[in-house]
Structure formats: C-alpha cells, structure tokens
Records
---
Amino acid sequence: MSIKVEEKTVAAPNATKAEPRSGGTSRWVNMLAFDKVGAIYVWIAIVIVFSFWAPDTFPNITTAKQILNSNAITGLAALAVTIPLAARVFDLSFALNMTLCGVAVAHFVVDGIPLGVALALGVLIGLAVGLINATVVVVMKIDSFIATLATGSLIQALITLVTNDTPISDAKLSGGFSKIGQTTVGGITLPVLYFALVAVGIWYLLEHTATGRRLYATGFNPDAARLAGVSVARLQFMTLVTSGVLSGATGIVLASILGGGSPTAGTPYLLPGFAAVFLGATQLKNGRFNAGGTIIAVLLLGTGTTGLGLANAPQWSGALFVGIVLIAALMVTGLQRRTTLTARAPAVDEAEPQPA
Amino acid sequence: MSVSENVVGAGGTSLAPAQTGTVLRVEGLSKTFPGTRALDDVSIEIARGEIHALMGQNGSGKSTLIKLLAAYHSADAGATAEMDGAEFEIGKTVPHGLRFVHQDLGLILELSAQDNLALRGGFARGFGGRVLWRQQEAETRRILAAFDVDLDIHRPLAAATPVERTVVAIAAALQGWDGDGVLVLDEPTAVLPHDEVQRLFDVVAQVRKRGTSVLYVSHRMDEIFALADRVTVLRGGRRVGTYDIDGLDSRKLATLMVGNDVDPDFRADVVARTDTSVTLEARDVHGKWLRGVTLEARAGEILGIAGLAGAGTLELPYVLAGQGGPLASGELRLPQRSEEWHDVRSAGQLGIPLVPSDRQTEGVIAEFSVGENLSLSSLRGLGRTGHLSGGQERQLVEQWSARLGVVTAGPSAPISTLSGGNQQKVVLARCLAISPDVLVLCEPTAGVDIGTRVAIYRIIADLAAAGLTVIVASSDEGDLLALSTRILVLRHGVVAEELATDGLTKNELIRAIEGAGQ
C-alpha cells in the first residue's frame, strides 16, 4: 500500500527518537538538561557571584551550614503543601496551622504535661486541622483556595484563644522541648535531617507508588482520573490530612527552634513555602510538584537570601530576589511549554489497522 | 448501501468556479515543524459562493492549514495567497473577509448571546462609555434575524442548545462583514447531536445565500455529500486533489483520504449470540435523561445503544460504569460473579471500564506520557504493597501498545504527541488492561479518522469474539452498524425498540432512532 511510505517519512523523526532510558550517556545528558534542572545552574551562578561579592564571608563551610539550618523549616513547610498541590488542592491554612501546633505544644509543656504527650497532642491538633480542611473541601465541595483561607481564620481564632496574642515563654521550654529543633550534629541542626527524611518519603510516594501516580492524575484531570477508576475525592481528602499533620509537626519544630510559642511564628513561611514548591515544580519533572525540585528550590532561594545578607545588601533585597526568581522560573517554564505545544508535530495514524 | 443515499439536501445547486470567480487562492503553502513537514506544497482555491469541503484523516494537515489561514502558525517561505484579488501574507495577516468558527466556538457560555456578539463586534456606546443597551439589543436582533434563530438573547449561552450556540458563533464571526468573503467552519458538527445537524445545514445554506463562501472541515462523510459543492482532500500533509462532489461516492472519497481501499461501510465480523451466558443485567436505570432502562447483555455480544440527543443514549454508558453522577439510580448485576444486585451509584467498584465520549476532557490526561495514561487503571497490579514497579509498568504498556497497534515513539512519549485515533487506542488499552468481563464505550470513534476507526472496530470485534461483553453507545450510526450484534434504540429515556443488525440498513436505523412511524 502506497500511503505507508509517505507516512513513514512523516513519522520517522518521532519513531526513531532514542528513548531516554536506553543509552547511558543520553540519560545523563537528559538529566542535566537546562529545562530540567535550570535552577541548579542558576544556583551555581549565584554561588560564584556571592563568592566574588562577599569573598570574606560567603564562600566557606559555615555559610553552607547556615543556609541549610536556616532554611530547613521553609523546606518542611514547602514539602507539607507539595502533596495537596500534586492533586491541585491548595492548603493556604498551613502556616497558621504551624503556629497553632507550635503554641499548643508550648502551652502543654508549660502546663507540665510530659513532653511526649505534649508532642503527640500537638500532632493530633495538626491532624484535626487536616480533617476539618478535608471535610470542608471534599465533603462540602468548597474550592480549596477559599476554603483553607476560611479555615485559616478559624485557626487564627484558636491561636489567639491559646496565646492572647502574647508569646508563650517559660524556663520549662528550654529543656527537652528545645532539643527537638536546636540539637546540632557537626554544625547541622536536626531540622535539616527532618527535611531530608520527609523529602525522601514524599519522593518515594510521588515517584514510586501507585498513590503518587493517582495523585498527579487527580491534579491534572480529575474527570479522566475518576473515569479511570481513581478515587479522586478520597485522595484529595487524604492530601489535606497529610498536609495538616506535616505542617503541624513543622510548627512544633519551629517552636522548639524559637524556644517558645510565638503567635505569629508560622505566618512568615506562607509565601516562601509556596514559592519553593512552585519553583520546585519547574524543576526535574516539568509541571509536576515534586520533592527533588522542592529541595533545589529551597537551596536556591536560601542561598540567594543568605548571600544577600552576608554581602550587606539592603534588607528588602531578599524578598525582591525571591519574587524575581519565581517570576523568571514560571515565565521560562511557560515559554518552554508554549514552544513545545506549537512545535508539536501533528502525529500521523498508521493506515493499516493491526488488531490483536 | 452507500452513505449518499442518506443525503439531506442543503439547497442550492453546485456552482462552477469558472463562472463565479475565485475568492480565495492559496498556492505553494508549506509548514515545517521541527522534524515534521506538516504541510507540503498545498494549494487551495475557493470559488465565490461555494461550499468547499476540506477532508483528510487526523494528521493529514487539515488543522495546520486552518491554523495557517488564521495566522496562528507562520508559514514556510514560498507561499502565495490572495483574497479577492489582493495578495496577503498567509500566516502573518488575515484578510478582513476571512472569518473563522473554530471547533470550540470561542464563546463565553456564562454570557448571553448579546454580550458574546458585542464582545466581538463592539458595544454601541454613548456619552462617557455608557452602553446604549436598547440600540445594542436592536443590533443583536438584526444580526441574529438573518439566521432565523429564535433565541433569548439575554440568557446565558450555557442554557442554549448546541446548535443555537453554533449559530451565535457563526453570527459573531460574520458580523461587520457584508462582502463575499470566506467563512471557515472547523468541524462544526463535532459537538452537535444528530438531529440538530440539519438546522446547522440550513444556517450554512443561508450563509451561502448572502454570497459568502464556506470552507467546511469535517470528518463525517455524509455531511460532505449533503452540503458541499467541491472537496479538497489532504493526505499526509499533501494535497491529493480537489473534486466535484457529484463525481464522488463515499468509497471513492474514503480511498482518496486513506489512499487504500478502506470500506466506509465496514462491518465487523461478529455474530449475534444467544447461546452464551448473560454477563450484565441492568434494571430500572434512571438518570438525567434515562427513565427506566432495563437490559441484559451476553458474553461475546456487542450491544449497540442508539438514540437522539436527550434520549439518554450517551448517559447510559456512564451509569453502567458507575459514573452516572448524583441523578443516577437503578441496579446492576454481573450474574457470572454473583447474584447480588448493586446500586448503580456504587457500581464503580464492579470494575466495568468506560471509554468516555470526550477524549480530551475525560479520556487522556494531557500532561501524562503514553505509558502513564495507559497504566492508570491497573496500577494496583504493578508491584507489591503500594510500590509501583517501573519494569512491570513498562512491560504492560509495551504489551498493550503492540496489541492495539498504538503508533508512538515509546511509553515515555507525551500523550499529546499522538493523533486522536492513537490516543483513543491508549484509552481503550487502559480499559482492557484491567481484564474486564464487560466493556462500555461511548462515542468510540469521535474525532478518529477512517483508517484508525476500522482498526478500532476490528480490535473490539476480536475482543468480543474472545468472550468480552461490549456495550457501545454512539450518535454515529456507522459505529453501531459496523460493530453491533444487536441495537437497543432509546427514545425519551426508555428502550423503544430492539433491532437485529443482520441486514439492517443505515436508513432503517435512522428511521428507528428518529421514531418515524410513531
């Protein structure tokens, strides 16, 4: 049949393209491609810039440790919202949930409740917040963006109830409680370890389990996912429960670092947390919220802000840097997607049907 | 039988281009995407006042040609184009007289017909930017009056029927233009139920009456024979030729498109079964449209579901797959597995897979690869205790891609690089990979070209021969005749008639669907 020949010429560039899996070299080249890990190149550039800008203070191991230690909480916060975002569910209440769990545990410890019990209660509060969020979003079917803004307001009410808007501080808080976040091993604090552990857990969940795949399917096209047999509502419910527990635990670690319950502790992490996840989604697996990308993003943003501090740049430069990086990353990703869309070759059907 | 038997005339006689002159002429048009020549030296000439069809399989370059005309893509160098004798740069500028109605219509459904028209044509404004609503309303009525459509111009278009929306889109495209020009209609019937197609044809005839030429893009051959004067056929990015419709029949046209003798009246080699055991029973199924459907299907049977829009034809598959939504009620039973009846609202757990009607919004996940799309329903079986085994997944995907003949660069290729027909095969493979006893299909060949369409028919027929129960609902009689061993015709939400397909003609089926003689 004549048409076959014509079609082969059209389809050839597609059909002969090497699978990224097949060759060892092409696999590495593919992994290091700018559109996959562009932020790493930007990060290297930033490190070089600051090494010249602040040669006395920036390029040393202390700075590296400082960057890790001071960004572990941002990283944990970002990971907490990675799972809901993978399923396209927003948890805007996570920062207030952090605050609530932090002040609650501080309150319990000051009240003389044993540390273990206090911690368990704190995590349970996070779980309860997650369950409430999930109920409002999934059962009552309210858009997650607005719903978690509303539940955030409820959480704020509880925070004020517990603290009267004054920080909780007490000598009891400098005991075992402070060890959770302040213990250092070779200059690295424990929260960095927590960050690494949670990142590995989320990486495994999203990349290597059926649940992870179903979460992405839910996020990209909930209707198609439902028709393919994915329990969309149950997954969305679970993502909010997970982010409730994770952000609650993160808030407790933060309170331990701060050595007390601050009624505004979590709020500063709202924007950096989301910034890191969205920047992370432009890395490694383009368009998918993923743990590895989040780590890269946290390091990039953390290095930039720390470097600006060490270089004695003005106070406002840190926030400016985060804003510019985020816009640039999303713009580049958007451009890439548009080019691939318009350049997409209209594929050709084979003419001869080949039934089973 | 030939499809042209079923011609529903649109009025008007064929106009020979020589007598009336050419309104749009494009020559030497090519478009190269990285790695692919989507269009190769294509020319097209549209005569004044004619309805000119553009046909071709998926990937033949039809949509690329339309997108070049609309200056959505830029053309390769070397093309010449002129409209009404004036040259223009194709791919960069769009002449004033060239108007488009794209497949998605480009309307804002939350807004009224009046607002939609005004958004394109401009508002009548007075002092301080105030909209002169009375004047605006008169203008809207004047525009729509030309199309003989009775529509509440203040109601959101979401409440209008599909054909009314199409008419508003056509009116919006043509407003502010009284000259000859060319209206490009890209698959206008893709979203229309069968019984509304005739109304669209009337509107197209009215458009032609004002002297406007129509470039009509469609997959459906019977429409071309009913409507067009001439047809230009594309294949693999090249122009096969332009033909007078009078000299063609559906077989010839199909051959021109596919380049190979594919039978447009293909009938799958399946026999009606009454000897096998019943695999699916449904009783008293209600829904948004359904008003108490009871049916049973046997192993190895392909049960067709036919009916007009609103009869519940396209709702039934969703209900049977347990995806009927809050309005669905009724009971299902799989007698081979258990005697127990299940409520249709919890029937999702029965594992009856569905190939949904709208591939883009309900079938594929555009951001996923071919492999991820294919394996989505069978992830549980790939690996142990929640772990997803990449190796097992790859094996499953390759096995099914090969079985169904999916043309792809590999499991990790983005699904969006596949043609519609191949995407449909992936969705079908996803359903089959869970080894179901019963498979439900809704509009299985919508937006699928003839070659792949027959391939899909053959796959389904082979599966039925191997004992699978298939239920196929379609608004395309061709699907039902090609596949079914038995057809249930729905009217007003109930089973009105049961037809054996042996010897059934297309006209008989259409008469039954439309309830003629009732």
Note: Residues 115 and 122 of chain B are 9 Å apart (CA to CA).
---
Amino acid sequence: MPHKRTTRLVAALTLGVALTACTGNTPQNTQSGDKGGVKVANDEPGKKVVIGFSAPAADHGWMAAITNAAKAEAGKYSDVELRVVEGTNDVNLQISQVETFINDKVDAIVLLPFDGAALTPVALKAMKAGITVINVDRQFDSPFAARSTVLGDNHGMGVSAGTYICEKLKGRSDAVVAEIAGIDSLPLTQDRSKGFAEALANCGLKVSNRVAAEFTVESGEKAAANLLQAARKIDAIWNHDDDQGVGVTAAIKNSGRSEFFMVGGAGSANVMREIKADNGSHKATVVYPSTQGADGIRLARLAVQGKSLGDLVEVEVPRQVELYAPVVTKENVDRYLPTAFES
Amino acid sequence: MSEDTAVTPTNRPVPVKESQSTVSALLSSAAGRNTGLVVALVLLCLAGVVTAGDRFADVDNVLTILRLAAVIGVVSVGMTFVITGGGIDLSVGAIVALSSVWATTLATQGLANSTHWIVMVFTALAVGGACGLVNGVLIAYGRVVAFIATLASLAAARGLAEIISNRKTQIVNVPGFAAFFDASVLGVPVLVVIFAVVAAAGWVLLNRTTFGRRTFAVGGNPEAARLAGIDVRRHTVLLYTLLGLCCGLAAVMLIARTTTGSATHGGLYELDAIAAVVIGGTLLSGGRGTIAGTVFGVLIFTTLSNVFTLNNLSISAQAVAKGAIIVVAVLLQQRLARRSGV
C-alpha cells in the first residue's frame, strides 16, 4: 500500500509551488523505501477530521471515478469522516450543499465545483468560517477561496499527446493529424488544444482536422463519424477524452478504417487494456488523474491535522499541487492501470 | 388558434354552465390539496428532524433551504400563471441563462459601474421579459403550439447565451450589486425576501385581480373566455411575458448567488419548475392554479434535497424519491379532477 501511494503522490505529481521549484517532477521512483517512515508517521490516526465532499454529477466515467476514489481514500483512514453529497451540475444546488457543510461546521471541504467562478463566493464564506477548503480540478477565481488546490495539467496533456505523435511521425511533414476535442466551451478543452498545437508546431506538424464532442459516448461517435467523412486519409488522431473515446472507437470500427493510430486522453482502464493488448487503434493515452479528489481528501486531512506533505521539507501543506500528464504506452501501461478509471 | 394551443384540455372541457359551482368546489378542493402538501412538508421536516436532529432544525439550515428554494421558486411562481392559463414553457432555464449572461457582459458591467448596479437588474428583467414576449407572440399570434415554440426558444436562447458569453463564465465585479443581494433584512437573506414578495404578489395577482380571473378563464376554456369578451391572445402574450420577467429576476438572484453569469446557468429549471407547479396542485391542462401550492411544491423538493444531503444519501436515491413524489401528486390530482369534473 505505501508503494502505491508513493507512486501516486510523488511519481505522478508535479508540485506547482515555488518552494518545490528546485525539485520539480524529477523524483519519479526509487523513493518509496527511504521515505516510508515519514509516510507512516502521516498515516498515524490523528484528531478526527470531518470532510465534506461535493462534485458535479457523475455523468461520465472520469467524474464518477473522482467521487469513488475520494470515498475509497477516506475509507482508509479511521480518523476521517467523509460526507459525500449528491453530484450536481446545478450551481445553485451545489452552493446550498456547501452551505450545509458550513452549517454542520465540518473541518474541511473538498470541492470540485461545476463552475469554479460560480462557487467562489460560497467557498470564501467557508474559509471565513474557518473551514479548510481544498479546491479540486476547476479553479476558483479568488486565491482566498481555498487553502490548497489540486489540479490536473490540461495544457500538459496536449503537450504530451503532441510530443508523442511527433515522435511517432518523425520526419513526415505531410502527415495528417486530427483532433477530437471535448466540450469546446470549457477552458480545459482550450488549454488541451493549445498545448497540442504548440507541441505539433515544434516538429513542423499541425492539426489538419479538428472536431469537438461532449465527453459522452454518443457525442464521440457522432464527432468521429463526421471526422472520418471529412478526412480521406489520417495518420494520427488525438482524442481528448477516453469516455467519449468509446464512441470514437465504435465509429472507427464502423468505417473499417485502420490507416492511423490513436492517442487517448484522461486515461480510462479500457483504453489502457487496449493499449496493453495492442489490438486496437489506441497506441497511447495521456493521463488526467481521476484521483484528484482522493488527493484532495489527503491534503484536507493533513492540513486540518497540521501535518506536512511527507516528501517535502516544508512543514505546511502546499498551496497548489499540479498533477503530471504522462503518456501511457504499451511499455509502461502496468504502472498506470491500477489507478485508471472505468468508463 | 391560440385557443387550440392553449387548450390541451379539449378532452376534459369545463362546462360553462357549471363554472360557478366548480369554482366553489375548486376552492374547497384546493384547500384540501394544500392541506395534503402541508402534511407532506411536515412529514419531510419530521423525517429531517428524526434523521438529522439539530442539524436540520437549525436556523442556518432553514435559511439554506430557503436560499436554495428562492431562485427556482421565482421561476415556478411565473410558471404557475402560464400553466394555469393553459400553456407550458420549456424555455425558462435557457431564459435564465441568457438573462444572466446579458446582464453580466463587460459592456453591461461597465455601464453599471459608471452609473448604478441597478442597470444589471433592469438588463436581466428586460432580456427575460423580451424572451417571454417572443414566446407569447409566437404562441398567440404565430399559432405555434406552446410546447414547440418554447422548445425552439430553449435551444435558441441557450445558443445565444453561449454566443454572447463566448461560452465562458462571466465574473461580476460590481461591488454595490453583491453588497445589496448578500445582505439580510432582519436576519432573512435578501434573496429569500425577494422570493416571499414575488410569491405574495403572485398570489394577489392570481386570486384577487381581473388579470387572475381572466387567467383561469383562458386556461379553463379559451373559447368561452373569448365569447365572454376576453382578448385571449393578448392575455396569453401577457402570461408568457410575466414568466419571462420572473426568469429575468431569477437570473439576477442567481448572479448574486454565484457572482457570475453563464450559459450553463438554469440547467433543467424547466423540469424543476413544472414539477413544483404540478405537485402544488395546478392542473397541467390549465384552468386551475394555486400559488400557495407551487410554493409548497418548491419547498417540498428543496427540503427533500436538504434532508438527503444531511443524511449523506446516495446520488441516485434522491432522483427516485423526486420521481415518486411527482407520480403520487399527479395520480392524486387526476382522482380529484375526476371527482369534481364529471
């Protein structure tokens, strides 16, 4: 168990705090042994911590995995009492859920807001009430609204996917690269696309065809079917999201095309299994950790109990933790499969 | 033809002759229905107290319930008028979104900062009212079935909201606006006060004015209403405009609550509002409506949601409970309607 945790906390993390700028994301492995003692100290039951957890509706696999992973993580600690409320895409309702946590005088709130800006006022209210707020994935628009923030690296996902495709298509400046984006309105989608375009530009490639889906299987099928009609020949496709990827794969099967390879996004278990078996168009996927909520639970517990993050010298929990977006291929898939989500 | 659209109830026309006697029967049965709602709400509160104890009966928790109810409550009061008048509006959530976006554009906020924050309120009301007006005109004069016309508005208004906001969340930086709506009057949050005022005004308008009587007449039997000299088309337009204004006001409240305007605001509010109106005892076919019932309907749903939250209950159980409540309410309604109608 300590090893698994180390993998998640250290290996797959980029710490976006100034004080860790010197360490960066270099400690990839080899650390589980000597730091074990620190972790055990942190795991010792401390004072009881009541944590409220609220996230958007679990309408796709990744989002469902966020809540499930958070629940599982809280279950590991005898000193954590987790209160999970109904996932909702209605900001009005989510605000009232946080208000309920404030009324209950919980010790900490782990919040993945449907809309970061819309939940900022109530998060500020919670912080003013002395509650430790941990912001997950979608950022508030005020630095005072959260004690600490756990983020995935959307721009980095695009960079990782683009860099991988560049390597695979080395020297082919006429290659056709297609992109199937997620919900285009979300800043996260714009960040992913920006990183992707930048990485491709680095090796003289560009996105020839771009379509957008909505993270759902149905929308993925529709977008991919259109894309395959629009482009007669494709060399590589990056699909932002493995949940919609189920639909994308179905559309590709229907078309009978196989001249290209695919790179997924987010990192679902079924795509990783396909990569491992090497029997489909997916040759790689880029991880957007679905364990962010679980990391939020851990940070909340540490912050409330006044403990530090084990592998840092600093005695306080960092302000911001930005997770890394690694490329998963056949070679390293076994490392990421255990924390992948089921879509 | 507005008659045709407004009248889903052709299968169950209210005979003109009996209207007098039905009115009195209505009053008594409406009171009866409200008693049922009060009982349901009391049972829910009991369940809350038993399962969550002090956490439920706390003043702060009651205010949390009321704040949650306020936004959807204002929309539901407006929806009560439209449904009582024999119509339906599926576009309310989209209108809330569009109003919230329009009232928070940089241009509007700039104007609000250089003049007064009330500009944002008027913008939201104007946008909501205009959307309602368009709906009403389409339905009354364009002879488009209400279901279709407002379905079209749903798509168009949300699309327009996305275009205006460029699908981004617009953050409000108008200090006076936030300060006003965050305040409390004698310990009651302003948002809750607004809901109470709207509900009271709605009750007076529906039960104590010519406008209200015409609404019942138009919803009950548009043809008879027309023969009685009521301008059914004009009245239909007014009803939808009124609902649009309510949506604009709800948008203002949502902006205050979230400090943002967004094209994603108000998602599925049409279903929540229609559900609250229907379990409140307003007939979907028109001709009967009760503001008090609607307020109880809203409170029942929000209290339910609160009790589930307090008890840490699963994500899906609440939806099942909501569905069950709606079915029971409609079944009850049908029985009451059969008893008094035939």
Note: Chain A has twelve helices and 13 strands.
